[in-house]
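Course assignment 3, question 2. Fill in each field.
Student: A.L.
Task: Predict the tertiary structure for the chain below.
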Amino acid sequence: MKPSETSGGQTPLPPLDNLPQKDGEPVFREPWEARAFALAVELHERGVFTWSEWAQTLSQAIRKAQSRGDPDCGDSYYEHWLVALETMITRKALTSHEQIDARQEAWLRAAAATPHGEPIELGRDGEPVPPA
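Answer field:
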């Protein structure tokens, strides 16, 4: 289902024309991009934020990156999406910057402890996994 379609009486999202697309569908270069996209859509559908709040936050993230020299070639779009997502979930008190930082550090440790070719699993390094 496209994000602009309705499901179960949900309010439809506006078209996501800014997303990188192929044949009218979103294109993701990496699995994390698809997960970030899906998480933002899911949080909207659960009523955590309005789509206009999301659009404003994403626009701010893009403008901030451009002011720091991002050439805006499209390859960093989902990095901006992730920044906006982190901004929204901390603004809405679903998590904190400290929890995000701790989870990122746990992921980096797990990645370093993972043999090449194996899936990265949090806690693989033997350290406790902080709550998200």
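Instructor remarks: Residues 104 and 114 are 15 Å apart (CA to CA). Confidence is low (pLDDT under 50) at residues 1-15.
Grade: pending
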